[in-house]
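Troubleshooting: if your tokenizer reports a length mismatch, compare your output against this known-good record of 244 residues.
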Amino acid sequence: MDYESFFELQKKYPRAVGNDFMLPGDLKRRFSDGLITVCADDRALFLFEKRNGFTKLHFRLMDKSATLSPFGGELAAFLTYREGCFQEIASEWLLNQGFAKTKTLRRHTAHSITCELPIDDVDYASADEAYGMFGEIFDSIESDMPCPELFEGALCVRSDAGRPIGVLYMGQTLVVAVSPEARGQGVGRKLYKAYADVREQKGKKTVFHEWISPDNTSSLAMFKKLGFTPDNVLTETYVYQLGA
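Known-good structure output:
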């Protein structure tokens, strides 16, 4: 199925229960690159998006009795909602399909960050450098990492030997990774200050969104100092090893 056919098909499925609002922004290109598979019947619309190391599930349910077809490999689904407005039906359906909830993150937002720190020691990482570091720090499913080539131009702090010890990816949402040995040294703060400076130079409003685990006390402390506050939006990750 091509992008145009999918665009017409999805009009038949109301935006009721599901998570399809999390579709990638470059959906048309992903279709053309063969990274998308679509399955549909009178009970549900499923879109499977190939990612690095797993497949991401987007779905709309017309009927809670809908079931997934056998699928080889690791499948992950993400739900985002505001507190008090839980997607209970979608969550229940995923659990009934055999998925397990693996991670809950809370979104924090800052509307401006001032740049009083010198940022001369922040430069740009290559795609391979940035992607390699994110791969070391994060599980690909938990961070929902995009394709490696999209990391080109990530901000970077390096060690005295020139090795990246902190990177900030500037995508639809910001993702920051800091090497364990460099934590507590202000690396993350430098990266956020540098990003704010880049935005200011381009004349763009600086609004930050960061997803943080509720038990990640060190990150919570840093973001609080930078002016981040929780905005009561949560995201949950559901994973199932299907057909393994």
